[in-house]
Recover the amino acids of this structure.
């Protein structure tokens, strides 16, 4: 009786081990599956990151089809917060039933006014100035860009150029510490352009590849902000001729099309070279990417899809449009 119980226990144990092994195999299979989705297609990644926008689109076109009615496409783009004027422009002359190929061509075209940016042979240090209104996500995006630099095995230094608020300097400092990258900072209220100068000088002295400089989103008045940004730009050029090499405007994606007016104001102040749209994970307004790029005639370099250091995707119009079309069309072409 005793040995019978023992045998039964042993059998149960073996069974449990087999089950465990099978479970482990399944987990491993799932893990490799996930990795391959992300590695092989930034298309798949877009649909995951922009799930709220894509859910809205699918509410208009719930079933994937070979051809979709003109009105449905129109409604779908309105739902995704694309500006109506741009929808009209994009769809002008399309037939009653639209194929994937026809729509793809029109949507990709909306991004084509933006100039091509050649990112080979970058100067050293490569200086990026980050501008945008309060709360747009400037400081968080700087951390994400610094993290990208590190992953690309490029050295990077941060400049805490938002000297307007003490909390802004602290926030960037804690990111620098977390990412283990150097930072140049000063006390609240001190000259922001001096911080920019010191950061670039330090990068030159230490042979650092990338410089990323934070700025304030708001001062007492718009004129003050405009003057401060102009001064920072001038002083960057003194520290290193040609700097800042990119003035990047950070736009809050949850604001949809209203962000365009902000970008226009900053463009008038100092000129903008490219856009990063943040917080697309929390909004159904992803369609605003079309209007933002088209109206401003500027490239979108990255989109922010979360609050963590890895939540920044390189933006590609082709992949973005394809991932959107994958949601509603059956055919690949
Ligand atoms: N969900 C989500 N949250 C984000 C993203 N980017 C930034 N945030 C959050 O938005 C808030 C504002 O971000 P900040 O980086 O402090 O914005 P800022 O432009 O530096 O703001 P100021 O320094 O106040 O001018 C923070 O709570 C961030 O965590 C994003 O891509 N997705
Ligand atoms: Mg900030």
């Amino acid at each position: 009786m005793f040995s019978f119980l023992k045998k039964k226990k042993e059998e149960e144990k073996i069974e449990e081990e087999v089950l465990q092994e099978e479970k482990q195999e399944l987990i491993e299979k799932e893990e490799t599956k996930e990795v391959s989705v992300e590695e092989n297609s930034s298309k798949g990644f877009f649909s995951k990151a922009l799930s709220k926008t894509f859910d809205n689109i699918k509410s208009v076109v719930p079933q994937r089809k070979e051809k979709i009615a003109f009105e449905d496409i129109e409604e779908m783009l309105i739902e995704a917060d694309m500006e109506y004027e741009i929808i009209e422009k994009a769809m002008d002359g399309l037939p009653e039933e639209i194929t994937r190929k026809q729509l793809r061509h029109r949507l990709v075209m909306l991004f084509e006014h933006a100039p091509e940016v050649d990112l080979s042979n970058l100067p050293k240090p490569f200086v990026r100035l980050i501008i945008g209104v309060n709360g747009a996500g400037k400081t968080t995006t700087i951390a994400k860009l610094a993290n990208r630099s590190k992953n690309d095995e490029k050295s990077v230094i941060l400049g805490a150029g938002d000297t307007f608020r003490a909390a802004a300097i602290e926030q960037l400092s804690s990111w620098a510490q977390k990412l283990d990258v150097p930072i140049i900072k000063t006390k609240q209220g001190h000259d922001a352009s001096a911080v920019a100068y010191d950061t670039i000088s330090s990068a030159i002295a230490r042979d650092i590849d990338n410089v990323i400089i934070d700025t304030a989103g708001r001062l007492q008045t718009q004129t003050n902000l405009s003057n401060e940004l102009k001064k920072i730009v001038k002083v960057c050029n003194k520290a290193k001729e040609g700097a800042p090499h990119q003035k990047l405007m950070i736009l809050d994606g949850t604001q949809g099309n209203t962000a365009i007016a902000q970008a226009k104001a900053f463009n008038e102040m100092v000129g903008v070279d490219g856009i990063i749209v943040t917080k697309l994970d929390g909004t159904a307004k992803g369609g605003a990417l079309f209007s933002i790029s088209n109206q401003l005639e500027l490239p979108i370099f990255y989109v922010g899809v979360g609050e963590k250091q890895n939540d920044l995707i390189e933006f590609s119009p082709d992949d973005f449009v394809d991932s959107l079309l994958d949601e509603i069309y059956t055919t690949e072409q």
Notes: Confidence is low (pLDDT under 50) at residues 29-40. The radius of gyration is 25 Å. Residues 138-139, 162, 168, 171 surround magnesium ion (ligand 2) (CB under 6 Å). The first strand starts at residue 67 and ends at 69.
